[in-house]
Amino acid sequence: MKRMMGIAAALCACGLFMACQSTKGANVGAQPATVWAIEPGKSIIQTDILGFSPMAESGRTTIVFSLYFANAADIKKWVLTIADAKGKKSEELSGNALYLPSSITWDGKDASGKYAAEGTYVAVLAIDYGSAYTSSVSKSTSFILDTSKPSGMISFSPELFSPMNDTDRMSFTVKPDKDLARIDSWGMEIFDPSWNLFKAFNQKWPTDTVVWDGRGINGDLVVSAEDYPVVVKIRDEFGNVGIIQTLLPIDILVIKDGDNYRIENSRIYFKDFTADYQDVPANLSQQNILRLDQLASKLAKFPDYKIVIVGHAVSVFWQDSELSKTEQDEVLVPLSKARAEAIKKAMVTRGINPDAIKTEGAGDADPLVPDSDYANRWKNRRTAIFLTK
Question: Are 54 and 62 in contact (CB under 8 A)?
Fold first, then answer.
């Protein structure tokens, strides 16, 4: 009689287990549970996911093993072991007929409390029935424990972007490193030099490339000769997010304006309140040399044109009209004129005809944005160059 009651209890548990296994859109309990014949000593361990990451920013951070214990009344001991592909154990749990959990959750940590090494794992449920039945061993499907963020690189073509025509485009391509987890999606944010969001893209893998026309969210074209920070976030199938950062250099843009041309910005970094572009941090000094070389190369393509170099500055006292005028006359105009002269001298040493170059200092007289716009006033601190017949 006791044996029959045990089998009946096991059948009941089996029915309840199957009733809880719903598929997407199913109405749990609406249909009678499917019951199958119990094979002596045959138990089940299963999981519904292919992998997980304890560090994931989204998605599952644990894995759940659903358990069904066949012939439960005769179980002397059960042991659940989680091991990697080489058989190295990371976790082991055990019990007897008095403790038969319907599920066990693993957080990816081993017995020491540290995260187990990432890799492919399997969970094994071993049951000892004593003399009642032959011992049984059941295995889950293999699954991945992923403890690292995806990595890779971002490349762009052309390497120096020069979007002067409506047809000019730049391609960005994401190249992830090999990893256990597959890539799910990625997003790219392009910021202006003051780290204001300029443009954003989001793509579902396996699309690995986006094409850009150089215009921002509001339709603004990138600023000549600036470096635009680029941040790429790659998300894998388990919710881990890796970040790639780089700089996108914008070429010196020569823009046609009727029969003439203009260069809005040559982007030379000067020492504060001076026309010295050499006594600056080493990385800026190197960039200045590169920009001046590029500028001379551009100007050499227009031998029949007159060159006007106009220095511009930013007002500190923009909120006070009287102070602003004094600042303009006594500080900003002379400073911007001196900076234009410094660029002229650099062009002459690089082979440009000095008789073709004229310099002016505009100070803050022709701002691109209000000086009160702290997020964008960097655009006003520039050197504009005009090419005229």
Answer: yes
With cut-offs at 50, 70 and 90, classify the pLDDT of residue 20: very low
Is the distance from CB of 266 to CB of 343 less than 8 angstroms? yes
388 with 280, same domain: the answer is yes
Residue 28 falls inside a structural domain: no
Give me the amino acid identity at 359.
T
- Structural domain of 322: 252-389
Tens of pLDDT, residue by residue over 294-350, are 899 989 988 999 999 999 988 989 888 899 899 899 999 999 999 999 999 999 999
User: Which of these, 21, 218, 209, 172, lies nearest to 102 by C-alpha position?
Assistant: 21
3: its two tokens:
């044996």
CB contact set of 235 (below 8 Å; sequence gap of 6+): 57, 58, 150, 183, 184, 185, 186, 187, 241
pTM score, whole prediction: 0.70
Long-range contact pairs involving 218-221 (C-beta distance under 8 Å, separation at least 24)? 221/163
Does the pLDDT of residue 181 top 90, yes or no? Answer: yes
Q: Which residue's entry shows tokens 């655009």?
A: 379
Tell me: pLDDT of 5 over 80.
Answer: no
CA angle 28, 33, 34 (to 5 degrees): 130
